[in-house]
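Consider the tokenized backbone below.
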């Protein structure tokens, strides 16, 4: 009976991780896929479109510090449930007018931020030695969420005769998180206030290196997620094929995020993984901006695979490098809060440059500079032994001693 209870608990928590992951990008990429139609439908200016494209990322940053507060007050499971309810209501609200569009985008971004911060805590607490694998499953769910939002919203807008209904559809999968979260919360029992609190954070080079790496890869991701369909539409593609390219980039990142997350748990150091992801991202960006349109599927596949790897590294490094003496939710809140604040500049910068008439071949150049910073910061983090997974670190130290 105890084995059955343990298996049931594992299934419930696994379902929660996957369901949450499947909802932390669709609300963003669904809007990006039909951004031009949204501009026309709601009468937005170019400046308002640029702000709208950057709002979700900005709220990912602003909402991150709230997540540890919810976790300490309600426990991780109930905090996830509260955030899922907010996300569902926010996504359903967005199509109800221009004010609702902005308000729903704001609250959806804050809810997504909270889920992104708290789920890694759930992963490390519940899955222990399998945290690397489940970090990979979580980050892969992110990619699938992005692909679904980008790939299905345009066809849905045609089927439902407008972008409003297509945006509202994404409240349905968010409601699934509410259902699973309610089941898990009921199984977890009461959580005393402050139960999950642990030691405070210290400002360390490791913390800020991970934060910088996370912020750089996120800036590039959200810049691409926000403007890739528009970039290819401006280069001559129809709206539907341009949106499908964004979906293709997201799909290409799925195996990469899972693969690198598994490797992070098995390798004592990950700097070469960081290098491969950064170089691939740079090559993909160059091909998207300067390559022939006929190469577009290959270009976005390279870019998507590399970005998926970088994001998988970002999430996994949070889980395996955070000191076990501190709350992972607090550590993750700093990394993701500051990181997403950095990332918010990406879609906003591209939107401003496009509004000013800057060619895409020039507008993409600053992103390549960010990729270089991503490489440097990730290299510094990757050369350190992990905070958990001590056998690897000890083996590495023994090899070093033998070499000396």
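A designed sequence for it:
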């Amino acid at each position: 009976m105890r084995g059955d209870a343990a298996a049931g608990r594992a299934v419930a928590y696994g379902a929660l991780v996957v369901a949450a992951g499947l909802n932390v990008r669709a609300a963003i990429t669904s809007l990006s896929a039909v951004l031009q139609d949204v501009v026309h439908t709601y009468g937005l200016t170019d400046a308002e479109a640029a702000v709208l494209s950057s709002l979700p990322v900005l709220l990912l940053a602003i909402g991150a510090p709230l997540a540890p507060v919810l976790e300490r007050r309600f426990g991780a499971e109930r905090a996830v449930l509260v955030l899922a309810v907010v996300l569902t209501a926010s996504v359903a609200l967005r199509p109800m007018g221009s004010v609702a569009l902005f308000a729903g985008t704001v609250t959806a971004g804050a809810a997504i931020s909270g889920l992104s911060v708290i789920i890694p805590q759930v992963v490390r607490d519940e899955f222990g030695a399998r945290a690397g694998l489940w970090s990979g499953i979580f980050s892969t769910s992110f990619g699938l969420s992005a692909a679904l939002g980008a790939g299905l919203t345009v066809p849905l807008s045609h089927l439902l005769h407008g972008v409003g209904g297509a945006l509202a559809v994404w409240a349905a999968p968010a409601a699934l998180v509410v259902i699973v979260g309610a089941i898990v919360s009921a199984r977890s029992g009461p959580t005393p206030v402050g139960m999950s609190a642990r030691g405070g954070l210290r400002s360390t080079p490791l913390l800020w290196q991970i934060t910088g790496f996370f912020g750089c890869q996120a800036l590039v991701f959200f810049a691409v997620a926000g403007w890739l369909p528009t970039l290819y539409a401006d280069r001559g593609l129809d709206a539907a094929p341009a949106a499908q390219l964004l979906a293709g980039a997201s799909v290409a990142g799925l195996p990469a995020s899972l693969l690198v997350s598994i490797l992070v748990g098995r390798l004592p150091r990950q700097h070469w993984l960081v290098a491969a992801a950064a170089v691939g991202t740079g090559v993909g960006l160059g091909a998207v901006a300067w390559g022939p349109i006929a190469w577009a599927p290959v270009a976005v596949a390279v870019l998507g695979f590399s970005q998926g790897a970088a994001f998988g590294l970002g999430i996994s490094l949070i889980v395996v490098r955070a000191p076990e003496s501190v709350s992972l939710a607090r550590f993750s809140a700093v990394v993701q809060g500051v990181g997403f604040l950095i990332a918010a500049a990406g879609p906003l910068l591209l939107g401003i440059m496009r509004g000013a008439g800057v060619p895409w071949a020039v507008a993409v150049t600053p992103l390549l500079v960010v990729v270089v910073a991503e490489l440097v910061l990730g290299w510094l983090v990757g050369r350190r032994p992990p905070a958990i997974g001590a056998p690897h670190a000890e083996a590495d130290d023994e090899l070093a001693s033998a070499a000396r």
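Confidence is low (pLDDT under 50) at residues 192-197, 388-404.
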